[in-house]
């Protein structure tokens, strides 16, 4: 689950991706794989893993970040999925079971087109074009 973005006027260099540590996950120690996927080719461009736990480097906004295995450049006019792999019965995420979909605000470097999810990532994705709304959230 995650967000579907389109890069605006300048390339973006990504070095890390984060996933929100939902408060009820504080007793959990699940590891989540986070990925950047090119929408046109369904190609995984970069990935990392983060452990969601109240004791694991949660930033002031509630995100846990992992460094990508190598930096990824996102190009203007191209669309990407930034996603977290979730498991049935696992950690909570916003947008799941009526928890509500976060509305995110971005700078002018990228537009959030909406939400995305998949049961068989990374080859088959469903998108919901609801600008600025995401699952997760991921960052």
Mean pLDDT: 79
Could you give the order of the helices and strands? EEEEEEEE
User: What gap, in angstroms, lies between the N and C termini?
Assistant: 12 Å
Biggest sheet statistics: 6 strands, antiparallel
User: Roughly what fraction of the amino acids lie in strands?
Assistant: 35-45%
Strand order of the largest sheet: 4-3-6-1-7-8
Number of helices: 0
Your description of this structure?
- The structure is a single chain.
- By secondary structure, the protein is an all-beta fold.
- Helices cover 0% and strands 44% of the residues.
- The chain is built from no helices and eight strands.
- It has strands at residues 2-7, 12-20, 31-38, 43-51, 63-74, 79-84, 110-117, 126-128.
- The strands form two sheets. The chain has a six-stranded antiparallel sheet with strand order 4-3-6-1-7-8, with no helix packed on it. Strands 2-5 form a two-stranded antiparallel sheet.
- A hairpin with an 8-residue loop joins strand 7 (110-117) and strand 8.
- The model has no long low-confidence stretch (mean pLDDT 79).
């Amino acid at each position: 689950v995650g967000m579907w973005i389109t890069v605006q006027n300048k390339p973006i260099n990504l070095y890390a991706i984060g996933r929100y540590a939902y408060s009820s996950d504080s007793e959990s120690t699940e590891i989540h794989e986070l990925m950047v996927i090119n929408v046109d080719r369904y190609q995984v461009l970069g990935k990392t893993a983060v452990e969601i736990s109240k004791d694991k480097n949660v930033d002031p906004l509630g995100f846990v970040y992992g460094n990508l295995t190598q930096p990824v450049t996102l190009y203007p006019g191209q669309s990407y999925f930034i996603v977290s792999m979730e498991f049935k019965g696992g950690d909570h995420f916003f947008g799941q079971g009526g928890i509500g979909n976060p509305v995110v605000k971005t700078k002018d470097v990228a537009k959030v087109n909406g939400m995305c999810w998949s049961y068989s990532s990374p080859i088959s994705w469903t998108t919901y074009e609801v600008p600025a709304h995401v699952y997760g959230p991921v960052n």
